[in-house]
Amino acid sequence: MLVESLRLLNFKKFSDKTFEFNEDINIFVGDNNAGKSTILEALEIVLNFQYRGRSFNKEFSPDLFSKEAVYSYLASPMKPEDLPVLVIEAYMKGVPEYRGSNNSRFQDTQGVQVKASFDTDFIDAYQKYLDSGAPITSIPVEFYKLEWMDFSWNVIKPFTKKFRALYIDPTRIHPSSGKNQYISNVLNTALNKEEEYRLNLNYRETLQSFNNTDEVRGVNNDLDSDNKITDKKLTIASNTMPVGALQNALQLEVDAVPFHMVGKGEQSKVQIKLALHNKSKDIDLLMMEEPENHLSHIELSRLVHNIEEQREGKQLFITTHSSYVLNKLSIDKICLLNDSYTRLHLLDKDVVKTLKRLPGYDTLRVALAKKVILVEGPSDELVLKKLYITENNGRLPEQDGIDIIVVRGVGFKTFIEIGKEIGTAINVLRDNDGDYNKNIIPVKQEYDEYKNIKLVSSQDNNDFSLEPSMISANSASEKELLGFAKIVLSTQTYNLLNSENTFEEKINFLVNWFKSVDGDGKGKKKVDSAIKLFETSKPFKYPLFLQEVFNFG
């Protein structure tokens, strides 16, 4: 079974939204409150008829309706036909028994629907409620009915449904209220029916043996020996335990520590691995909330490797705030929720391969930001931030939604390809490396058709990188150059500079001091100088082309 798409009508923040999915992995990313968890919750409702691990019947509330639906109802005459309908539909393949046209699209296809609507059996009761003049501030869900049906209009029963879906979220485990429900999920995941029956029977027999112990017999002999309480024999005995109640008496342990008391990271690992390693129960679909929570980098690496190795064709829906997770599981499986819903399933395969090999790059920042500036090194980042602070009354670029990202190793192309797919506005600050026509013009032409991608560089070949550009901007006179040099250089290096005879020699000294090759250690000097520029209160000038870096058009 596969879920191809999900349609939500009047559910939480989505008034009417359809989400298309990948057949293997779907990684939901987005800002807080973008709707990532809402999609997983909707899947849990429509696939398991549960909401946050409890029966949907018990958890159905007015808060599940979209604000638009609530406002529309409150502004209406509030007749029965004005009450909104909440619908969650999973469009599937691989379940031919669920084929039909009982869906909001009236399409002949496979799927499952959960529908919350006004129950006409309550029409008189609802009218009396309105006539009473009682204040109405939300959807009166007491007059609603909940239906869980397939697209052929058959009621779905949990024990006979044609698929298995598991929701994994360790934050739901509570030392008391959540433990029994969790144990139930573990048993359903890890045991086949025969094993579960044997466990129930064996446990019941063990309880019965308690009745035959000398201690229990002694208590029973004295409990009502004179028959003053009843003329029948009064005894205590262990509970015979109804079918399915095993989870109320058992607990999972890790190294003899109750599961709900071990670390959250260990809980997350155990849950995920139980689901992935399960073969006998044939789970079709897994839903996971942020597997990176409470895990060190090493533990996360091991867990993601386990997910990769053991998923074995199961469809996976996962939320994450970790670039490592999405890079390793494959960045082209991103389902991005911001102002719209975007999948990266068409992302360049070379980019995908690179990031799977080198997963430590913060690609999530490119996916989530509205405006991105890519730079070659930390010194560029510091100088740009200083420029922005100076011209925007002390505000940092990130306060205004601009994320400056230092690109290392993988190069600009990787991040630009992500931006091309998503539509993120990306400005790239590039060194011309001494030849603007050769090194910059062809790259600019490559991205001409993408209005959201812009390359910025000095057109002066003498300004081959940021540092000589800054020197040029601050060398209108020898006095100005020395003032700039006093900010960025140590006292010892400044004295060496000042000992040069001519103005031109001083400029050349400073340019050569910043010019570096691999392994000469000047990269650190560049960063140290950029830190001094960032922290100084003394005035200095910026090259004009840097202004263009913050112009997103």
Give an overview in words.
This protein is an alpha/beta fold. It has three domains: 2-19 and 50-160, no CATH class; 179-321, no CATH class; 363-549, no CATH class. The protein contains 22 helices and 20 strands. The strands form five sheets. Strands 1, 2, 6, 7, 8 and 9 form a six-stranded antiparallel sheet that branches. The chain has a six-stranded mixed sheet with strand order 10-13-14-3-15-16, with helices on both faces. A four-stranded parallel sheet has the order 18-17-19-20, with helices on both faces. The longest helix is centred in the middle third of the chain and has 18 residues, at 193-210. It is elongated. Residues 174-179 have low confidence and may be disordered.
Explain the layout of strands and helices.
Blueprint: E1 2-11, E2 14-20, E3 25-30, H1 36-48, E4 50-51, E5 54-55, H2 56-59, H3 67-74, E6 86-93, E7 99-100, E8 109-118, H4 123-131, E9 144-150, E10 165-168, H5 179-190, H6 193-210, H7 214-223, E11 253-254, E12 257-258, H8 264-277, E13 285-289, H9 297-310, E14 315-319, H10 323-329, E15 334-337, E16 341-343, H11 349-357, H12 363-368, E17 371-375, H13 378-391, E18 402-406, H14 411-422, E19 425-429, H15 436-439, H16 441-446, E20 453-456, H17 466-473, H18 478-488, H19 491-498, H20 503-514, H21 522-535, H22 545-549
Parallel strand pairs: 3-14, 3-15, 10-13, 13-14, 17-18, 17-19, 19-20
Antiparallel strand pairs: 1-2, 1-6, 4-5, 6-8, 7-8, 8-9, 11-12, 15-16
